[in-house]
Amino acid sequence: MRDEKEYNNRVMWRRGVPLPKGIRGGIIRLSSGASASVVVGRCEEGKWEHVSIALYKKRLPTWAEMCEVKNIFWDDEEAVVQIHPKKSQYVNIVEALHLWRPVDGDWTKLNDM
Predict the structure, then answer these.
(1) Helix, strand, coil shares of the chain as percentages rounded to 5?
(2) Beta bridge partners of 101
(3) Beta-carbon count within 10 A of 17 CB
(4) Domain boundaries in the chain?
(5) Helical H segments across 56-112, by residue range
(6) Distance, CA of 1 to CA of 9 (rounded, Å)
(7) How many Å apart are CA 73 and CA 88, to the nearest integer?
(8) Looking at the DSSP assignment, which residues form a beta bridge with residue 100?
(9) Are 36 and 54 a contacting pair, CB within 8 Å?
(10) Helices (H), 1-113
(11) Which of 37, 55, 56, 60 is least crowded, fewest Cβ atoms below 10 Å from its Cβ?
(12) Are 34 and 58 in contact (CB under 8 A)?
């Protein structure tokens, strides 16, 4: 994940929103003109970098919008994934999509999510 200084100018961070330690929420404007809520940080005991995105237009982000979000928060050569978990593990409550990357680069951890 990029250093926070590299993407801070793209995000209007929310203050006073109760989020777990190491997680921040904010708003970004995409080149498509859409405004989006983002939640950024490390999850699963710090093992995963995570960015979620929910558009204010109440629709799911397009592929191009997800690519833009990926490029805001990660370097060009870092791989990130969207995970489609078992139905019993669904936790999404809004029209949001999520990008994940293991901090140590060990993709075998996908089986542990």
Answers:
(1) 25, 30, 45
(2) 49
(3) 11
(4) 4-112
(5) 63-73
(6) 15
(7) 29
(8) 50, 81
(9) yes
(10) 4-7, 63-73
(11) 56
(12) no
Across the 113 residues of the chain, what is the mean pLDDT of every consecutive 10-residue run?
Answer: 90 82 89 93 85 90 96 94 82 83 84 64
The answer to whether the CB of 52 falls within 8 A of the CB of 97 is yes
Q: Return the CATH number of the domain spanning residue range 4-112.
A: 3.40.1720
- The CA distance from 37 to 17, in Å, is 13
For residue 54, give the H/E element and its range.
Answer: strand 48-55
CA distance 59 to 78: 27
* pLDDT reported for residue 111: 67
Q: Reduce the DSSP state of residue 88 to 3 states and report it.
A: helix
Q: What is the CA radius of gyration of the chain?
A: 14
Structure tokens at 96: 């949001």
Contacting residues for 47 by C-beta, under 8 A, at least 6 apart? 102, 103, 104, 109
Q: Which two tokens stand for residue 94?
A: 């809004």
What is the reported pLDDT for 68?
A: 96
Query: Of 35, 13, 17, 39, which is closest to residue 92 (Cα–Cα)?
Result: 39
